[in-house]
Amino acid sequence: MNAAQLIDNGVPADEAGPIAARWNSVYDGIREELTARVKTAKTLGGDATRIKELRLELGQLDRCTHRACTQSPPGFSPHAALRLVQESLRYLPLELQGDTHRLAALLADRARIEWDRVQRARAAREAGRG
């Protein structure tokens, strides 16, 4: 992931750089850990389906090809990224958790800004109808 991809997906330039930098600093470690967890689950006869799905969706976000729902165009969604990063924390060793929490904080800030924008637009539409 790079800042240009995030900017193309609607993230302001001043926020895209820090998000991309933090993402790139932790993504490879998250992916490696999830891959190790899948291998361990297979070895022990466990079900690694959700971990595989999580790894796949994080990869889609990394390439900005993720679809938050089937109705949306592929891209980068701070909401989806935040949800997946938070879920991945369950599987990470302590040495990856601090940086991953910092990434989650950046994503949470961006997701909140987008949520507020959507709410204001919805309120404006409703006020225009009334």
List keywords for this structure.
130 residues; mainly alpha; 5 helices; 0% strand
Blueprint of the fold:
Layout: H1 3-8, H2 13-44, H3 49-62, H4 78-88, H5 94-129
Helix pairs in contact: 2-3, 2-5, 3-4, 4-5
What does this entry look like structurally?
This protein has 130 residues and is mostly helical. 76% of the residues lie in helices and 0% in strands. It contains 5 helices and no strands.
Give the mean pLDDT. Answer: 90
Query: Tally of extended strands?
Result: 0
Low-confidence regions = none
Radius of gyration: 17 Å
Structural class: mainly alpha
Count every helix, treating DSSP H or I runs of 4 or more residues as helices: 5
Oligomer: single chain
What is the N-to-C order of secondary-structure elements (H for helix, E for strand)?
HHHHH
End-to-end Cα distance: 43 Å
The fraction of residues assigned to DSSP E strands is: under 5%
The biggest sheet amounts to:
none
Short account of what is shown:
Helix content is 76%, strand content 0%.
